[in-house]
Amino acid sequence: MNIGLILPGFSADEADQAIPVQLALVRELARQDDVRVLALRYPHRRDVYPIHGAVVHSLGAGHWVRGWRRLALWWDALHMLRRLHRERPFDVLHAMWADECGLIAAWAGRWLGIPVVVSVAGGELVGFDDIGYGLQRSAFSRWVVGQALGGAARVIAPCTYTRDLITTARYAILPEKIRIIALGVSTDVFFPTDDPREPGRLLHVASLVGVKDQTVLLRALARLGGDVTLDIVGGGPERERLETLADSLGIGERVQFLGKVEHLALPTYYRRAALHVLCSRHEGQGMVTLEAAACGLPTVGTAVGLLAGGDVPGIAVPVGDDAALDAAIRELLADPRRREVLGQRARQAVCEGFTIRHTVAHLHQLYGELAH
Fold it and tell me: What span, in angstroms and rounded, lies between the C-alpha atoms of 309 and 160?
């Protein structure tokens, strides 16, 4: 099958973990399919290069291409897809975001007569003005999302939470157009070991940006006893403010801001923690929930993404409620047996339905339905 993937960015080479789950997905797809990736903005060079059996066509537009200059990028992408289709016809086009990637795929699909799949991957259906997050904050961005979703033969939601956002959105997407297919985790990388976990050690893995809402997590930690510590893996513009907040709450010595950690090094952190904590205001899926689960580590977190609908076993609390988050963490830390059982159930859920191989199998079935 000839598959065209449209992404905002993709790995510059096989060692570049720009978006690890997308690299893993392409590697699995390319084992049996002809996969061509159109990367709009990253890497920051115009190039054609192979990765894991796929071929990447990078337009190198960069994140700075904004405003009306985006039209030139979209035109460039459309003509690139037409040229590639003439060389070897695509069976399906799949955009991995319902933003400009989805718009380009939808327009190209109509132009060239190719079935189109669009995945909702992040903040396309929400808008938080106070933190400048989400594509529902402007009329133009809402129009782009509408073009992407309306032009797709199928729309993929990674979990029930995101499916519900799609069905209640202003775009009137028919329920039969929506499929739930999560982006799975690589269990060759993320798996449990017999190494002992450290009681009282919490782990949080996320970029330090407003939508991840680490303020709630720090306030919850301040409510917990002094023997509870927190490792925060990830970098971002909120780090200085969060470090200052931790100090003001009297927990500075109990929080380690570890910065960015290489993707392949993450399992070490999941394996030594007692609990993984999610505190986001919104997650399209929450890849870290699956990574933790694959390592046998349960997640306590806000009711977003995979946790909200119980797609993966864990404990969900209301968004923004530090008291509820504190209570849930406190309860599980006090019950090692329940924590262990919850981690085992989470691991089992991953193995039975949330690996990258499950993702590829579901996508192949969907692509086959559309291509024939």
Answer: 6
- 27 and 121 inside one domain: yes
Domain total of the chain: 2
CA-atom Rg of the chain in angstroms: 21
Residue 69's pLDDT is 87
Q: Is residue 156 part of a domain?
A: yes
Question: Is the separation of the CB atoms in 224 and 249 below 8 Å?
Answer: no
Beta strand 47-51 pairing with 54-58? antiparallel
**Statement to judge: residues 347 and 218 lie in one domain:** yes
Where does residue 244 fall: left (phi above 0), alpha (psi -120 to 50 degrees), or beta otherwise? alpha
pLDDT of residue 281: 98
* Gap between the Cα atoms of 322 and 327, Å rounded: 9
Q: Could you list the residue range(s) of the whole structural domain that residue 59 is in?
A: 2-184+355-371
| Dihedral sign of CA atoms 354, 120, 283, 35 in order | positive
Dist CA 29 CA 55 (whole Å): 12
Q: Specify the residue for token string 């796929």.
A: 54
Q: Which two tokens stand for residue 270?
A: 């999941």
d(CA 110, CA 278): 40
Question: pTM of the full predicted structure?
Answer: 0.95
Q: Indicate whether 175 and 213 sit together in one domain.
A: no
Q: Residue 192 domain-assigned?
A: no
